[in-house]
Amino acid sequence: KAGVTQTPRYLIKTRGQQVTLSCSPISGHRSVSWYQQTPGQGLQFLFEYFSETQRNKGNFPGRFSGRQFSNSRSEMNVSTLELGDSALYLCASSPQSYEQYFGPGTRLTVT
Amino acid sequence: KNQVEQSPQSLIILEGKNCTLQCNYTVSPFSNLRWYKQDTGRGPVSLTIMTFSENTKSNGRYTATLDADTKQSSLHITASQLSDSASYICVVSFLSGTYKYIFGTGTRLKVLA
Asked: What tens digit of pLDDT does each residue of A27-78 get?
């Protein structure tokens, strides 16, 4: 079974721009969660989608949004990028249990 | 407040030596505890997962223990190798409608030749 895939793997954007990251979960998994990881903060939960609906949300500003498609693929969007948004963005898929499988992440650098 | 604390923050050991990483949590109601290994710039990979009734779980040279009474877990690495250099993250999950996850900030381990 293929693992969680994330695209792109690396991204460089300028302050003020917007960015869209993509995550394809493991086949059959309907839950997708997004996390931001920075050196000082560790893993911070952004949101979770299940069957195209946002089920949980972390404490991030409205500039961070996401969606899930009918095939369970998910996208995350960050608008009006700030320098502090530079981070590794991780996606994790889950088969509706406590299991979580992480993707390789997207490294976003905002200059 | 649900929290997971890991110690030490960082650790340097020589190849072939053993080490133990600690995880203390105040998460309720507890569902399970997982240890992840994360190589730099990559996603975390699960090493072990333990539920309330399990107090030890091994995965090769990695052995995790869980004391649900004191809410402590440890990850013991035996005969360390250079490839063990990574961050180790403790995650505790609990069920509140849906499963939620509390992440520790990790222990950064460096193994030197």
From this structure: 999 999 999 999 877 889 999 999 999 988 888 999 999 999 999 999 999 9
- Considering only the beta carbons, identify the residue of B45, B95, B105 that sits closest to A42: B105
> Which residues contact residue B69 at a Cβ distance below 8 angstroms, ignoring those fewer than 6 apart?
none
Question: For residues B48 and B63, what is the distance between their CA atoms, to the nearest angstrom?
Answer: 8
- Choose from A33, A56, A100, A107 for mutation: most chain B CBs within 10 A: A100
pLDDT tens per residue, range A74-102: 999 999 999 999 999 999 999 866 688 99
Q: What are phi and psi of B54, to 5 degrees?
A: -100, 135
Chain B, 37 to 56: residues with Cβ < 8 Å from chain A are 41-46, 49
